[in-house]
Structures are given as C-alpha cells and as structure tokens.
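User: Can you predict the 3D structure for this chain?
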Amino acid sequence: MPIHAVLGGTGGTGSAILRCLLSSQIPDLHINVLVRSKSKLLKAIPQLESTSPTLVTIFEAPISNTDAFQACLNGASTIYVCIATNMASRTNEIACTTAAPLLAALNHFRKEQGSEYQPPVVLFNRSMALNPDVQFMPSALVKRFTVWVMYGIFDDLLKARAMYAEAEMDGLLTCITVDPPAIMEPNGTEATGYELVVRGKAAPMLYYADFGRAMVEIGQRREEFAGKSVGVSATGKVRPEVLVNLLRLLQGLRMRLTPF
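Assistant: Here is the predicted structure, written as structure tokens:
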C-alpha cells in the first residue's frame, strides 16, 4: 500500500495536492497529512470529513512534535514538503526547520529498519527564481531584483535544499526539487493546464490547483526526475493577483532597507 505524506495541508500547495490525491486513481493509496489545525484543513477540504480513515489519516501537531512527525512519515514512499511562507522576514527558517525533523525521522527509520529501509522520494517545493535552467521572468535584472528583495525566503530554501542533497548522497532519500513561478489563488480549485519544464522558458504565473496536480505527477514519475529540479509552467490563462504579490515585494524590500 503506497503511503503519501503531505507536510502542511492547509496552505495553497498542500490543499491542492490533497485534492488531487483524493481524486487520483493510484491503487491502494493511503494519505497521511500533518497540519497544525485539523479544523482549518476540514474547512478548506470539507470532503475529508466523509473520507474513509483507510484512505486518509490526519495528524494535528506542530512540526516540533517528534512523535506526530514520525507517525506521519512512517512507511511513506512519497513525501510532499508543503510547509512554506511567501512573506519575507528577518527570521525566515521554515524550510530548514521542516527539513531538520524530516531528516531526523528518516534517520530513525533507517536505524530501526536496517537493511529493509526503503528511501522515500521527497518533493521539495522551492521556487523557479532559484532554477538557473528555466527562465520565466522578463529579464535577468528583474530576476536578480526579486531574489535580492526576497533574500530571506530564498536563502532559507537554498539551505534546506543543501540539507536534502546531503541526505540524498547518504542514501537516506531521493529528492526532487519542484520549482513553480508566481502561484495564484491559494484557495482556488480552477486549473487551466500545466507542463513540466526541465530546461527552457516557462510562463510567469501558475494556479495552485495546477501546481498540486504537477506535484503528484512528478511524484509518480520519480525514476525520471530523481535528483533533478523540475519547473512547472502554466499552459492556460492565469489571472494575476497584483496587489497580493506587490505587497509581498514591498514587505521584502522593507526588510532589506530597514534595520528594524
């Protein structure tokens, strides 16, 4: 029975992945999901209330809860890392503080299971701005400015990716880095299509619903994308959320220009 573990199910990425998994045709699938608020998850995805416990197990706990974290990951063949932030701050560490207990849990399983340990696939949600092989911004200058403004978030993502890369070299896991462009409508279910891009040009925006579907597809094509960075590009029209994204950039700019 394949177990898919979703770390962070109430945000735009996690909820989109869950909706995709719930409607998927993956044989004998079981879903484990770790959230801080079960009530928030059920409000976002009401169908979970009527879903059989043989299909979904919900763990309500912070990522600092070692027992819940290990229980969620135990036996998982696919792990979706969806605990993230879009808002810049001076203490952006969420990617690293998620990676640390994840790796500790996998090390615990390997020590416990010995030669029977099977390394899972970890799908790490990063950003296309950090992918040198995929171009989605109008110019290199715009890209450099965006990375500079959102430095706290991107630095955290780079450090976490290095942690996963080291663990992959140790045989603890297989990491696939999934790089979206700007993602729109975290609470939406509209999907207009996507394509996977390893090298070349990509659309500047993508719906969360399409990103969730892409994450699940990439997880199913793990042998093809193992150890790689994969961009996700929209193939249909995407409505921009100008104000929300402008506020994020202004917040990042304030963090960079002011000492407090």
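The longest helix spans residues 94-113. The mean pLDDT is 93.
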